[in-house]
Design a protein that fits this description.
Elements (H helix, E strand, L loop, with lengths): L11 E4 L6 E2 L1 H14 L8 H6 L5 H11 L6 H12 L7 E2 L3 H10 L4 E5 L3 H8 L3 H4 L5 E3 L14 H8 L10 E5 L2 H9 L3 E4 L11 E2 L18 H6 L5
Parallel strand pairs: 1-4, 1-6, 4-5, 6-7, 7-8
Antiparallel strand pairs: 2-3
Helix pairs in contact: 1-4, 3-4
């Protein structure tokens, strides 16, 4: 589904990680439920609350959950307990379908790519460790939860503007394409003046430039990017 077909030529691409490149939702949900259940708030952790916290920075998530689930924890204490649950499981995160193929394709054609994730640097590196070769293809990574230049998290535009600024040759926002799965991420990218392809796990943002079910459905040519070779299109990796 496309908002319109008037795509400016894209020169740089920015990727979210959780739910976009990596299938981490089930890992985070399991860890959150375990911490919340420990303090008797399991019934308050609804699917709506889960969607509400998607794509946000760690402390913002902790503030929302501790308040709405009535937990006897400060946000910092919640994050600390969550980290203990996540440490052994984050490195097992699997790639989303088509992610590896697209990222490798862009890198092979010298299209600058970077990461803009709401994660902290420590947990971000943990989840990327299972696919280090792929993540080494990115020119730089912005970890929103502890990057001093990212004043406000998604749905604010800060992280995307910082990510664009750090390319070797910084592009203007209209020449950046962002891949996101959350409505807060899409909103932030739109406010940064960028085009956004949404690969949703839950709710769809009506302002997204395009909405696709998976990276396998993405056509780079529509955005002025190099197209897939025919052999690559038929034999490309699914990302698993």
């Amino acid at each position: 589904m496309e908002k319109n077909s008037n795509h400016a030529n894209i020169t740089h691409v920015i990727f979210d990680v959780d739910g976009t490149i990596l299938d981490t939702e089930s890992l985070y949900t399991k860890a959150k439920k375990n911490v919340i259940a420990k303090y008797g708030g399991r019934e308050q952790f609804t699917s709506d609350l889960e969607s509400k916290t998607a794509g946000k920075q760690a402390f913002d998530v902790a503030e929302i959950i501790t308040e709405e689930c009535n937990l006897p924890l400060t946000p910092d204490e919640f994050v600390a307990e969550l980290d203990m649950m996540l440490k052994p499981i984050l490195p097992t995160a699997q790639l989303k379908p088509g992610a590896e193929r697209l990222i490798q394709h862009l890198a092979e054609h010298n299209v600058p790519v970077c990461i803009a994730t709401s994660s902290r640097r420590r947990t971000g590196k943990m989840k990327m460790s299972g696919h280090s070769d792929l993540f080494n293809l990115f020119s730089h990574k912005v970890f929103g939860s502890d990057d001093p230049e990212v004043g406000k998290g998604k749905p604010n535009p800060d992280i995307f503007l910082v990510a664009a600024k750090r390319f070797e040759v910084p592009p203007s926002p209209e020449h950046c394409l962002v891949f996101e799965d959350s409505t807060s991420g899409v909103q932030g990218a739109l406010e940064a003046g960028m085009q956004v392809v949404m690969v949703p796990e839950h709710n769809i943002h009506p302002g997204a430039t395009e909405v696709i079910e998976s990276f396998d459905m993405f056509d780079p040519v529509k955005y002025g990017l190099p197209g897939y070779d025919l052999d690559d299109a038929s034999n490309g990796s699914t990302g698993y």
